Structures are given as C-alpha cells and as structure tokens.
Amino acid sequence: MYDLLDMCVLAVGKYGGWMEAILDMSGPMAELTPYSKLTILAFSAETTDPGDDCGDTQKTNHHYRLGAHLLAEYLGRTVLQQIPESKETFQLTECADKELPRVMLSVMMSSFYNKCPGYNEVLYGQDVIYNIPTLLHPNEFLDGAVTSSSLVPGSSHIHTYEYQSFPILRKLYAEHGKTINFVGVTNMLIGDNLDRKNDYAIRIATMARMLKVDAAILCEQGSGNGDIDFFTTLVSLEKVGIKTVAMAIESPGRDGYTQSKGMLDGRGNAFVTTGNNQQITEFPAMETVVGDIQSVVRDMFTGFWKDDALYGPSLRSDGSIIGDTHSILGYDGTLGSSIKMGKNY
Question: Is 340 helix (H, G, I), strand (E, B) or coil?
Fold first, then answer.
C-alpha cells in the first residue's frame, strides 16, 4: 500500500538564483516552514549545459520544474487504482441560509515577467501573464490547475504544494453554510505598469460586485512590486463597500526600520501578518546536505551575502550559515500554512 498523504516532490539543482531557498528538515529552522513536516522526495540534478542554469540571477528552472511535475505525476499514477483509506469531498453547494455573509477569496499570482513562457504562475498550462483576473472554483486549486512561478524569493512565492493544500481555502469550505457563504476565488495578477495594475484591481472589484460579495480575503505573494497591486485591489473593493481582510508578509529590512510594505492605505484596517521575512537567522552545519551548499552565496540567493561588515560571510568555513528568513523555503505561508504572527508592543 502506498501513502502519498503529506508528501511532496522537491527538485534540487547545482546552480541557484535570487529566487531560490533552502530547507532545514531537522535543525532549529525546521519549525519555520511547513515543508519540514512533510515526507519529501527530492531529486538532485545538473543540466548537461550549465549555461542554462547559471550566470542568470532570474533563471527559469524550466528543466527542474518540468522534472518535478513529471515525477509527481508518475507517483500519482502509481496509486490511481488503490482504494483510499479515507476520502474528503469539497462541494460549493448553495447555502440554505441566505443571510450569511458572502465571502470571496483573492490570491495573488506572479504575472509580470515575460522572459519566457511559464516563468510566472501557470493556469491550466498557460502562463498567467496572458490572463486577466479570473473567477475560479475553489476545487480548481485543489485539483492542480495552478502551478507555481519561479520568480520571487523562495520564502515568498506560493509553491505548487501550497496551492493544492491551501489551508485558508479549506477553512472557508469548512465554514461554508455555517458562518459564511463562500462564493469562489479570484486571482490577483501583478501588472507590469500602473495602468494595468489599476485595470486588474477594477476587474476584481467588478467580479465581486457581480457576485454580491460582502467581504473578501486577500492573500499576497511576496512584496515590493506586488504591494501596489495588493493595496490597489484592496482599495477598489473597499470603495464599493466590500470589507477586506489582508493577509501578507512584512519586509521591514534586517534592521527593522524600513516601511514594511511598498504601499499602505488606511482602508486596509484588517491586516493579518505572517511575520518578518527579513529576520536574521542562523543555520547550524548539517551532516547531510542535498544540493550544492556553495550555491547560496555563489548564485546570489535572496537572504544571503558573500560578506557583510556586521555578520561576516553567510557561508562559514564550518558549513554553518547566517542569513535572513527570505532564504527559508515556504517561510511566508500566506495561504494559511504559516505558524508565525506579528504583534504590536
């Protein structure tokens, strides 16, 4: 009997880039990522032409991503005829109680980098740079219609496993017909100019009004450029009377004094933070390392540095590492997998 529950496939290459991350499976940083709690099938590979994978800080990882998808599909097919020990059914049924607040979920997808097809999120096999914000059935995420980008730092971008497990979406399903009327999901896209950012935000607000939405939960991916789309969408919804709850990471800099988001607006008055993704942290040397540890400084991973006046080099001679939490795979957890929170003192 095969058991693929709480399991994922992880592709590891020799060369990295600024959007890569590391995963601590057994050390002190393991508690900061949901992936340390999974059974992981990792494969390590190196392309026959290293030029495909190094010398470019925004590399596509095309071969590795395709390999991971094919391996995951193969594993899925091995259990296709097995009888599951348990089954969970998700149905977006009509609510009998018409007075329940109508709630929409909106999740951000990377969509502004046109280097090559498939570098952004992929929806039904197509790079979402060619899409506009769209209404999606919640089950489309759980069924694998969306696969992740290779664009923002590894702590920040929403990985394929997270789309398919999607804790917030599952919670909304659990409350559907009890405390809320869950009406569906829209994808927030990141526009490559201000006009497009505004157009995308207006489209989401238009869909929400057509669905007679009372409240919307917004989940951000990353920060910086996406902050503009995130808050522009929030403001567009609030302007038409739809209450919003924002869920996002904060990036206040390693010193803690930088503005946490690239855009702020007072109408965003219900904000759930999943913590600081620039917190300095240390990884002890490990007996077993999958991949090339030199890559963290050689290939410019976000959150690491070759040398620093205060902290010294990120990669130390004994194999231990110092960096910030940008570097931890899945650290942000803005779809609900985060165990972190922020507090005001």
Answer: coil
pTM above 0.85, yes or no: yes
Q: Is residue 184 within 8 Å of residue 211, measured between CB atoms? A: yes
Q: Which long-range contacts (CB under 8 A, 24 or more apart) does 22-26 make?
A: 22/154, 22/283, 22/296, 22/301, 22/321, 22/327, 22/328, 22/329, 23/328, 23/329, 23/330, 24/283, 24/286, 24/328, 26/286
What is the per-residue pLDDT across 286-340, written as a single tens digit (0 to 9) for each? 999 998 898 888 888 888 999 999 999 999 999 999 999 988 999 898 898 887 7
Find tokens 């997998």 and name the residue.
Answer: 337
The Cα 131–Cα 273 span in angstroms is 28
Amino acid at 47: T
Contact (CB, 8 A) for 282 and 313: no
Q: How many CA atoms lie within 13 A of 128 on its CB side?
A: 29
**C-alpha span between 257 and 253 (Å, rounded):** 6
DSSP secondary structure string for all residues of 187-242: EEE--SSHHHHHHHHHHHHHHHHHTT-SEEEEE--SSTHHHHHHHHHHHHHHHTT-
Q: Is 92 exposed, middle or buried (0-12, 13-18, 19+ CB in 10 A)?
A: middle
